[in-house]
């Protein structure tokens, strides 16, 4: 598991992920300078460190490099969550506590994600007893909603 990104690494990677294309040090520098005073060599060092850590790949372009993300921000967040969860001595309790911290919107996003992982064949509610009387007659095919 990769260690969490530092504050400046995260600021740089945020731009690389957002732009979703190969970027130069100059592009990242100019965007970062809208928020803070930062030197070209600092951004260059951060991108080089991110390359050495495996977060970005780079390709030479003249005397400079273009950097591109190796994975998505979603994959990074998932790896951090998985690492934190796997370090718990009681994973079920950790999940319950985590779910308790979620907003209603986050819980709905979680439900959507579970449905996506399960696939369409398991996302529809089932009639465990198999009793046709429990089904909605308007939803049955060919009855004209009667």
What does this structure look like?
The chain is mainly α and 146 residues long. 53% of the residues lie in helices and 8% in strands. The chain has helices at residues 7-19, 25-32, 40-52, 73-86, 91-101, 104-118, 120-123; strands at residues 56-61, 64-69. A hairpin with a 2-residue loop joins strand 1 (56-61) and strand 2 (64-69). The longest helix is centred in the last third of the chain and has 15 residues, at 104-118. The chain starts with 6 loop residues before the first helix and ends in a 23-residue tail after the last helix. 10% of the residues are buried. Residues 130-146 have low confidence and may be disordered.
Number of strands: 2
- Characterize the largest beta sheet: strand count, sense, and whether it forms a barrel: 2 strands, antiparallel
What are the segments in which pLDDT stays under 50 over at least 5 consecutive residues?
Answer: 130-146
Main sheet: strand order? 1-2
List the total number of helices.
Answer: 7
Distance between the termini: 57 Å
SS content category: mainly alpha
Shape: elongated
